[in-house]
Amino acid sequence: MDKEKEKPTKKLITQDEILQATLKLFAQKGYFNTSLSDIKDAVGLKTPSGIYQHFKNKQAIADALYANILDSLSISIDDIRRRNRKSSEQLREIVDLLFRLTDDMPEIVQFLLIVRTDEFLPDQKPLLSTPPFLKIKKIFQSGIKEGEIRSLDSLLAYNYFFGIIYHTLKMVLSGDLPKKADAYQAQAWTTAWNTVVKK
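The chain above was modelled as a monomer; its predicted structure follows.
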């Protein structure tokens, strides 16, 4: 009985805990400046063996993180598209989601918009070719077809609109804009929508 008390219990961690800790580290330090030792410390492990139970290396963690973020975003966009018929309503809710994420989970938006994932995930599709962003491009195509968005190449419409949204969010994340993202949302939406709306 005494021997059992002396035996230290091994901390068990989940994949999600590893991914959440790694996301924060990648956002703060970047991929190349984050080591497995940093991840081990962030999840409260004494050795990296608990990480190896779930992932073979840092690259595998980055791949899983990227896939999880894109899957979640894709599901959210599907929900938004089901709830709203008009392109303007769908885009408005997507903007709401991005601004809310910037305030509540800034690491996710930083990972998507600022971290250069192509440098350490060379086998992954470019961001604009991933399912959530293809769905957003379809919203623009539909809006153009329905006459809600002016007749533009859909990729140009995407770039005009989201260029304003993404730049605003990047400025919030970098601290160049001093308030929370929510404070700039209405103004960013109006400006972005005015670049593509058919008048």
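Residues 27 and 111 are 6 Å apart (CA to CA).
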